[in-house]
Write the structure tokens for this entry.
Amino acid sequence: MTVNDAVAKRISNLLVQKNMTQYKLEQKSGIIHGSMQCIMNGRNKTVTLTTIIMLAKGFDMSLSEFLDDELFSLNNFDIL
């Protein structure tokens, strides 16, 4: 799995968990729709830390809370 894959899955899970739409997340986080679509569709291959911080803020959580998920376990990533 790539970091982008993990971020997209985390977003999807949190949207359901928090009963939030992607549009609402875009508004709260300040991430434009096109960028969010690239993350969610896997077209974005390099999600930055800044983007992850913006996502965490959009979900009203800290960065560590956003990353506190099994998806971000080092064993899950395909890193050379």
Notes: The chain has a mean pLDDT of 93. The first helix runs from residue 3 to 17.
